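pasting Polyprenyl synthetase family protein for the record, 299 residues
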Amino acid sequence: MSTPKTRLTTFLEKCRNRIDADLEKQLSTSGNGSDRLQQAMRYSVLGGGKRIRPALCLAAAAAVGQDEESAIVPACCLELIHAYSLIHDDLPAMDDDELRRGRATTHIAFDEATAILAGDALQTLAFGLLAEAPWLDNHTRLAMIRELASASGHLGMVGGQAIDLESVGRSLTIEQLEKMHRHKTGALIAASVRLGALTAPNVTENQLHALTIYSQTLGLAFQVQDDLLDVEGDTTVIGKPQGSDVARAKPTYPSLLGTAGARDYLSQLLDASLASLEGFGTEGDILRDMAGYVVARTH
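structre below
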């Protein structure tokens, strides 16, 4: 009998291999267009990454009894949106980072203009793929497009990044910090779970509500752990400069709550996330494993 750790390791490896194979196919350098642009897109998407968002999408589909095949396309689209956001976040006009996933950021490896265009192209590719996703009816496709647009736009991830930039050097309350991260990080994580659930034609409102609570709580937990890694992590492990948030005077959970307080809050978020899955049986085990993984990860 497998342990939760080995079960999750097997699931994540299977997920990563399948998602990477599909992304590789979608980002093939053959065809028309700029070779340099396509190279930058491939560099940004296929250069590592934990594939947490696609994994959450597939796990949520399994939790509502749906075959993973119907969730593959939305899972890939989530990774494309995530990759685009990282390219733009790293730009000199944003966070001005030179290291991502242990190697040069896209604007350093190529140039700033190509990086901007690569991000733009990945975003539009995601919505194009979702609009043509097989295994899904038109109603479900439309619901997913609406979900992803809301999570990634000005009311979600992009809005959160804007708040983040406006908050540098300012003192925020814990409520203001949570508002920022519910948008910047949490919105796309919540969309990952909800898109997986929406693949099931018979998903109930109660199931969708429980999974939404799970994903929103997990999104905050992800950010708290990210903030802790910025304080305690090793640059060679986390793949980006340790202490970069502190250097830019960005508000974080450790800066507001202290390291011990942030760890206590992380534990509370994990408990709340797991409690939201009480209505699911063994079909929700991977989601439970994912929650533990998010709060214990080292990169």
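The two ends are 28 Å apart (CA to CA).
The domain at 4-294 is CATH 1.10.600.10 (Farnesyl Diphosphate Synthase).
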